[in-house]
Amino acid sequence: MVTIHHLERSRSDRIIWLCEELGIDYDITHHQRDPATMRASTTLWAVNPLGKSPAIEHQGQVVFESGAIIEYLLSTFGPTSLSPSPDAEGYIDYLQWLHAPEATMTLPILMPMICGTMGIESELLPLFADSETQTMYRYLNSELTQRDYIAGGDFTAADIMLSYTLMMAQALATSEPEKVFFEYPALTAYLSRLRARPAYQSASAKF
Ligand SMILES: N[C@@H](CCC(=O)N[C@@H](CS)C(=O)NCC(=O)O)C(=O)O
Hints:
Structural class: alpha+beta
Strand content: 5-15%
Strand order of the largest sheet: 2-1-3-4
Bound molecules: glutathione
Distance between the termini: 19 Å
Shape: globular
Helix content: 40-55%
CATH architecture of the largest domain: Up-down Bundle
Radius of gyration: 17 Å
């Protein structure tokens, strides 16, 4: 049994979704955010020394960091088409998009929201964050115009990693400059396609 430590409105959505796609037994321990600071409750710190979601427990071990958890679950419960083999056509894209969402995309997408919340006006927003997000959106829009999934013809765990980050960008796109997200229609179409998956529907009922 896998125990998922799930923080409301957080990246642990990815792990619930992956467990649904894999069809494995799991349970969820829910953790709340402090309504004033939005930080995780101390109950999560008791599991993950970094105090972050997601974290899982399996066979007496704790695993944290969403990409690491995904790789752990795929290797523990695979082989599965969610993780293509090195000779598969989309393998390089799979590796890139398993890592880029956390390593490259999240910072510029979240910067405007974080600066806004803290009342910080910074030139880094137009100079760095806005141009970085537009570069990513432009590239992804072009790729997702040519195919349904990010790593070749089939759905993979890279789509779970990437789409969570894009769903976050979409949710934040309520005013300028974040609204630029909607200038790239293949991104919205991609998210609608993924949200229609039965495993996503089952997972999102538990988020
Ligand atoms: N790169 C990490 C990021 C983890 C992270 O920042 N999680 C957020 C939720 S999406 C969190 O736990 N925030 C609560 C806090 O920092 O107190 C991962 O992908 O697991």
